[in-house]
Amino acid sequence: MIDKLLAETTDCDFKQAVEIKKPKSWLKSVSAFANGIGGTLLFGVSDDGTVVGLENIKKDAEDISRFIKERIAPIPEFVLKVQQADNKKDVLVLTVVSGEKTPFYYVGDGNTVAYIRVGNESIHASEHELSELVMKGRNLTFDYVTTNYNKNDLAFSIFEATYKKITKKAVISKDYASFGMSKEGGKLTYAGLLFADDCPLLQSRIFCTRWNGLTKGSIYDDALDDKEFEGDLISLLKYACDFVNVNSKVRWKKVANGRINKPDYAERAVFEALANALMHRDYSIVGSEVHIDMYDDRIEICSPGGMYDGTMIQELNIEEVSSRRRNPYIADIFHRLDYVERRGSGLKKIQDETKLLYGYTDKYAPKFLSSRTDFRVVLMNLNFTPQDTPQDTPQDTPQDTPQDSSILKILTFCKVEKSASEIMDFCKLKNRKYFRETILKPLVEQRLLLRTIPDKPTSKFQKYIAKQ
Q: From residue 464, how far is each of 26, 44, 248, 451 by CA, in Å?
């Protein structure tokens, strides 16, 4: 009976008895379940799952109902049933439904406190989490909160051009209201503000770093490349993808009929992970940003805000994760721009795209981790081997090249003679050794770039031009 209940319940607590003198011990879970995705308390079951039963089932049921009505405000929806275990002992099963009128407070001991669920614990909601519960109770989301900015005071050329390119339709004035980007009177919502060309919202930023080695600040060197981007969400997504492309490689393997490309990462998986980070992050946390940390063996993409419903993603089956969106208007705009699918299958897409890579095994499976404060996606480098040096590039084979899209950009840039410094600036790189070994040297060895002074490779007047 217990096993069946656990199988059917997303979250569950065991209580050996109904504590009358200290009801807060279990009422805080009632508050947390109502504020989250719901849950079940089993009274008459010890912590290890042993059914000990209740002696006075009728009185215990009355006490549970009374305490919930007296000390939880507003009163949540709940169901209380008696179940008989295999050992013939009675258990009370209290099922608390996820509430709409959040926050649900525990009122007692001179305090009024809202609880949330983190893992298998019920803890105090922080000031920030409480604000989110208040908005949820008002059927509001942060991205639809009105700002002090007027739509006519800001430009939306990037959004409008991108929308027209994707949909073949021009954005008209009333679209801003229907997309949830503005409200009556022309005031922008936060969703609208985040798509403005020069978005003034401080937390609309991405910090990108390519670390040398397997950890931050390794003993070998500082970061090989680092960038900070700010502005509208469309530009942030593009800049972030470009950073990953420039700092990744596509190796290749000769086969009978040609060659097989072996990219470090699945390009679409990276795009999905970055789009999800920007779409679902918590923008109400002032001074926060999305972080992209690239190491020799992996990429970690971390966004502010845990799972919107308070669950831990690492404890869930990705195939069954429901689509609960913190920023539904931003998500809808991303869908309109064809960045994501509406049904909330981003994590599954990341998995599926990674599985298509040459050489994939389960050890390279993407990892999804969340905490109370952040959400993290870890993508493994399929070309990394433990014997790779921390510098990563000098020992790479001549076949190593930057991601294909980046190659085309560099070759287009070099249709006219360019110096190494000009190419490095174009790639937005600072580490000269990394640039020469990872980007310039492979392109020259494959004769995609030609030296203008071939007999003097180290000449200070040396320039490079794309092979015609």
A: 71, 78, 22, 5
